[in-house]
Design goal:
The structure is a single chain. The protein has 337 residues and is of the alpha/beta class. It has two domains: 4-204, Alpha-Beta Complex (inorganic pyrophosphatase (n-terminal core)), CATH 3.90.1640.10; 209-334, Roll (Diaminopimelate Epimerase, Chain A, domain 1), CATH 3.10.310. Helices cover 39% and strands 18% of the residues. The protein contains twelve helices and twelve strands. Strands 3-2-1-4-5-6 form a six-stranded parallel sheet, with helices on both faces. Strands 7-8-9-10-12-11 form a six-stranded mixed sheet. Helix 10 (238-243) links the parallel strand 8 (231-236) and strand 9 (266-272). Helix 6 packs across helix 8 (196-204). It is globular.
Length: 337
């Protein structure tokens, strides 16, 4: 991060700070935001975390989660609150489009702005950037930020739990984007008192009956295997969402089940939303899904975990994905698992 001295000076006195992350926030978005919030509050700042839409229920236990404001719930009042903030942190996204209407509020604000993110090709939306595509998660970068500020002593157990959760979820339980640096960091977090077994249970073992019934339905009725491309696809329709009463977070991790098949290298989860069709991509080995997400579905992410979207409907999106596979056939067939 350039100009760290200037940023330290800005943060040397108490400020009203806004932290925001992307629509449909995941574990890393919420974990990094709450971890940073709890850290900054110890420095005397007043901090508000605002996200465009609600987050999955299995994150409700996190320290500070009950204080997160959901912009969609009261855009007028929350928008006014945002405009009064004296500083903005953008976490886990690289374009104002990712925060929808909130970007129209924060973009013109004449206040210091900080971007902390690990996705490809960040847009110039902030005055200070801490960005690395080599990082496992934004939570990892928030820990780096705290260290750059020289404040490791302020990483309390609560801060550590939030950052650990972000890392845990964004790496798929330490299967993607790991590094020796990351595991040393996780060791530091555990030393702060993080109970990793407890958090694994809270995040991954808190399903309701409907989640298991949905899983059974998806694997039995909505799975397609394309052995010639070492690829598998699952889909969900709007009708499925209604029948199983699917809410935000209920489909988390479904795509990973496809990678449990020994010969599958590429997994795709394609599902209808009210106005768009979303696609989540996962892969094994050295096969990268970043290019597919970016080139065909206006998205991006990591080598083994990326996502995107389209406006052409479910069937057309599935067809578009299949039509792209011949381009990657050789790479898929030659990927060592």
């Amino acid at each position: 991060m350039e100009n760290i001295t200037e940023l330290k000076s800005i943060l040397a006195r108490p400020r009203d700070i806004l932290i925001t992350s992307h629509r449909n926030p995941d574990g890393d978005a919420i974990g990094s935001s709450l971890g940073l919030k709890l850290f900054l509050e110890q420095e005397g700042h007043t901090v508000k975390v605002v996200v465009p839409s609600d987050f999955p229920h299995f994150l409700n236990w996190m320290p500070g989660a009950s204080e997160v404001l959901i912009y969609d719930n009261d855009p007028e009042e929350i928008g006014k609150l945002m405009e009064r903030m004296g500083m903005v942190f953008y976490l886990d996204f690289n374009s104002l489009e990712r925060i929808d209407k909130m970007g129209e509020i924060t973009g013109p604000m004449n206040v210091p702005k900080v971007l902390i993110d690990h996705h490809l090709l960040p847009e110039p939306i902030a005055d200070f950037d801490l960005h690395s595509t080599l990082a496992s998660s934004t939570s990892e970068l928030v820990y780096d930020f705290i260290k750059l500020m020289g404040k490791e002593d302020l990483v309390t157990k609560d801060v550590a739990e939030c950052l650990f959760t972000g890392i845990l979820t964004d790496t798929g339980s330490f299967k993607y984007s790991t590094s020796p640096k990351l595991f040393r960091m996780v060791g530091d977090l555990l030393a702060k008192g993080v109970d990793d077994v407890r958090i694994q249970n809270l995040v991954f073992n808190s399903l309701e009956e409907k989640h298991l019934r949905l899983l059974g339905h998806v694997l039995h009725n909505r799975m397609e295997v394309l052995p010639e491309y070492r690829t598998a696809i699952i889909t969900l329709t709007k009708k499925d969402y209604e029948e199983f009463n699917i809410s935000r977070g209920d489909t988390e991790g479904l795509v990973n089940y496809l990678l449990m098949m020994k010969d599958v290298v590429l997994a795709a989860f394609i599902h209808e939303q009210p106005t768009i069709t979303k696609i989540s991509l996962r892969s094994k080995g050295d096969f990268s899904v970043q290019e597919i997400a970016k080139k065909y579905f206006k998205g991006g992410g990591h080598r083994n975990a990326s996502g995107g979207y389209s406006f052409i409907g479910l069937r057309a999106t599935v067809r578009k994905f299949k039509e792209a596979l011949p381009e990657y056939k050789e790479a898929l067939l030659n990927t060592t698992i």
